[in-house]
Amino acid sequence: MEKLEVKNLNHHFGFTEILRDINFTLKKGEVLSVVGPSGGGKTTLMHLCAGLLDVEEGSVSNTFASSSFAFQEARLLPWKNVIDNIALGLLASGEKRSVAIEKSREIAIQFGLDENDFEKFPKDLSGGMKQRVSFARALVVKPSLLFLDEPFSALDIGLKKELQGILIDMISKKEISILFITHDLMEAIRLSDEILLLKADPGHIVKKFSYELSQNLRDDKYVYGESAKILQDAEIIDTFELELK
Ligand SMILES: Nc1ncnc2c1ncn2[C@@H]1O[C@H](COP(=O)(O)OP(=O)(O)O)[C@@H](O)[C@H]1O
Ligand SMILES: [Mg+2]
């Protein structure tokens, strides 16, 4: 069974302790979210899990067959057009160019890009379009594990819902596993099987929340209801320094 297993993970930048004793397992077909305030070490944790940063103490074991990423900023290559940006991962994995281009065009359409945009360069795209390209690039390789670091944070509500909808469809069909980093509780409740609450200074997990209902059955009412519940939780209030007067 493919899984991502984190054990007794600690991390420092210089003399600053960033993460302390992080433990969790993400199993195939699951969506695991790490939720916490800004500066709490979420991105650092994701980088350690994704192999973008060296593990110094503890262990990260990733047996997923393949993985890809999407971040808050689209991080497109400015000298490549839309289709060539999407095709990057496919070409890197040795796919024939004609096949890679065809697959990239198909997924671009699925992510709401228009044929007229295919030849455009990142500088000529809106923020929303760039994020569509970023998602298409991450998913065209059909990753077994997807790393998402606040990919919806800069998007307007309509596009956020649209992109989440595509993911929810894949999640419900168990086509993908996701490590999802966010500071947005409602977003986490909409997408996750399990939420880990990461408290800051240093980042450590204080609580886990599990959600059983299939993601495609979670309507706004469910999400608002569960959010209202979780906002009563003392650890949530403390972690986010919410003052509910
Ligand atoms: N490369 C780095 N070198 C030094 N400090 C860093 C580095 N990256 C992040 N930090 C610090 O680590 C802490 C956690 O950052 P980060 O993981 O980005 O948190 P989050 O994603 O939860 O906002 C912050 O205080 C940040 O300033
Ligand atoms: Mg971050």
What does this 3D model show about the protein?
It is a single chain. By secondary structure, the chain is α/β, with parallel strands linked by helices. It folds into two domains: 1-65 and 144-245, 3-Layer(aba) Sandwich (Rossmann fold), CATH 3.40.50.300; 77-143. The chain is built from eight helices and nine strands. The protein has helices at residues 42-49, 82-92, 97-110, 127-139, 157-172, 185-191, 220-230, 234-239; strands at 3-13, 16-27, 31-35, 57-62, 67-70, 145-149, 177-182, 194-199, 204-210. The strands form two sheets. The chain has a six-stranded mixed β-sheet, with helices on both faces. Strands 2-1-4 form a three-stranded antiparallel β-sheet, covered by helices on one side. A hairpin with a 4-residue loop joins β8 and β9 (204-210). The longest helix has 16 residues, at 157-172. The protein is globular, with a radius of gyration of 18 Å. The mean pLDDT is 95. The structure holds adenosine-5'-diphosphate (ADP) and magnesium ion. Residues 13, 18, 36, 38-44 line the site of adenosine-5'-diphosphate (ADP). Adenosine-5'-diphosphate binds next to α1.
Entry summary:
The protein is α/β, with parallel strands linked by helices and 245 residues long. The chain has helices at residues 42-49, 82-92, 97-110, 127-139, 157-172, 185-191, 220-230, 234-239; strands at 3-13, 16-27, 31-35, 57-62, 67-70, 145-149, 177-182, 194-199, 204-210.
